[in-house]
Specification:
The complex is a heterodimer of chains A (284) and B (107).
Chain A lengths: L2 E8 L3 H8 L9 H5 L2 H9 L4 E6 L14 E4 L3 E4 L11 E3 L2 H13 L5 E3 L3 E2 L1 H10 L9 E7 L9 H16 L6 E7 L14 H13 L9 H8 L7 H10 L3 E12 L2 E10 L2 H5 L1
Parallel strand pairs in A: 1-9, 2-8, 2-9, 3-6, 4-7
Antiparallel strand pairs in A: 1-11, 3-8, 4-5, 10-11
Chain B lengths: L2 H6 L5 H15 L4 H9 L1 H7 L4 H9 L2 H6 L4 H8 L5 H6 L14
Helix pairs in contact in B: 3-4
């Protein structure tokens, strides 16, 4: 059976992608954030996943506001990047796991979640930056991709509890896939920020969220989206991707790595790696 | 929150989406390079092509974020718009501060 071996989280603002492209690994401004990924990369090397499920929000690349699904699952065997409006050297390609994707879609609908089904999906920077931080300086990644996209652009947005429950259904779907696969879930987004508006980084709330996501994710589920925006800015709602990841893992977790660094571009740079506490038991 | 406060907080909802559809659609078109070039060659003609109203056209002319948002624009699509101008990202993307701290903007 497939199993979820870990959950990883990162911020994804475009500035990170540009800094990586410019090779600013040692640049004093970026180094504390980039260095936070060393333990994640070491862990990935020791526990190489077959599949990476990236939970992220599209920023007007694959979806415009004409048709905006609340949740969307990519079902392709190959994905490509595209010009997001600021130039594009060449399309990069990423291998998908279409069979697992279809299984996930079927199981989600079976369990009363109804995502958009996408046999083609242009990959937004929110997806690619996350993978590139984990596997830097590569044209593509050493794991097959299942992209899970969610609406964080146009209200009404799914509420925290819905995102967590969606994650739980996603996790159950992955664990019920009959093939032996190691799967990691990457949440790309947040933490507190508001585009074009300095001063929206709320490090106290960010750290509170990082504590809660580890020990008490249920304690985050009764916020309204408006309350969340007041504390974390409108793009702070990208944290919903973290709730999806945490919902998928369920149970207690061991935190292998945790780093918070702010400001990073216009957000709080947050990196975490957690593993399900009962990984070994369930595999036995 | 009232509508103005929602807009200022960057909560892009049905009210904004209805009002700003054409403006956002124009900015979505900037994903394609030849559209970016066509816009930059004659910005006002491009606004007319997308049927922008007066307030939206003015927001494009002034590049003002708050005008853009009040005309129904989404911040995500504002990003595609201001990136057309060299140097604009400096003001747009950086300069964030952690709440309670003074002037540690960088980047």
């Amino acid at each position: 059976m497939a199993r979820i071996t870990g959950g990883l989280t990162t911020s994804h603002v475009p500035g990170i992608g540009r800094a990586m492209a410019a090779g600013k690994w040692e640049d004093p401004y970026w180094k504390p954030f980039f260095d936070a990924f060393h333990p994640l990369r070491d862990w990935l090397q020791e526990n190489p996943p077959d599949v990476v499920v990236v939970v992220y929000n599209d920023h007007g690349l694959n979806f415009f506001l004409d048709t905006k699904p609340t949740f969307a699952v990519g079902l392709a065997d190959e994905y490509h990047t595209a010009d997001e409006g600021w130039g594009h050297e060449h399309p990069r390609s990423f291998a998908g796991h279409d069979k697992l994707s279809w299984h996930i879609a079927e199981q989600l609908v079976e369990n009363h979640f109804d995502p958009a089904l996408c046999q083609e999906m242009r990959l937004d920077h929110a997806c690619t930056v996350a993978g590139d931080l984990l596997w830097p300086n590569r044209e593509t990644w050493p794991a097959r991709l299942v992209p899970v996209e969610m609406n964080i652009i146009m209200h009404p947005l799914p509420k925290p509890r819905r995102c967590y429950d969606f994650g739980a259904a996603l996790g159950d779907a992955i664990r019920s896939y009959p093939e032996d696969l190691n799967v990691v879930i990457v949440a790309s987004g947040g933490l507190s920020h508001q585009i074009g508006q300095g001063g929206y980084i709320n490090d106290e709330f960010d750290r509170f969220c990082m504590d809660k996501i580890e020990n008490d994710p249920e304690g985050l589920l009764d916020f309204s989206n408006e309350e969340w925006v007041r504390r974390a800015g409108s793009q702070g709602l990208e944290f919903m991707t973290w709730l999806v990841m945490r919902g998928a893992i369920q149970g207690n977790v061991d935190v292998v790595a945790r780093k918070y660094h702010a400001p990073l571009s216009h957000t709080g740079g947050a990196v975490m790696l957690m593993t399900p506490e009962d990984t070994v038991a369930s595999a036995a | 929150m009232d509508l103005k406060e929602r807009a200022e907080m960057g909560i892009f909802d049905g009210e904004s989406a209805r009002k700003g559809y054409r403006l956002n659609k124009m900015c979505y078109s900037f994903n394609i390079e030849e559209n970016r070039n066509e816009f930059l060659a004659d910005e006002m003609a491009y606004c007319r092509k997308y049927g922008l109203n007066e307030a939206q056209t003015e927001a494009i002319r002034t590049r003002s974020k708050s005008d853009f948002v009040m005309a129904g624009g989404s911040l995500y699509f504002y990003g595609k718009f201001v990136r057309l101008y060299p140097g604009a990202m400096g003001a747009f993307n950086y300069g964030s501060k952690v709440k309670g701290q003074e002037d540690n903007a960088n980047g």
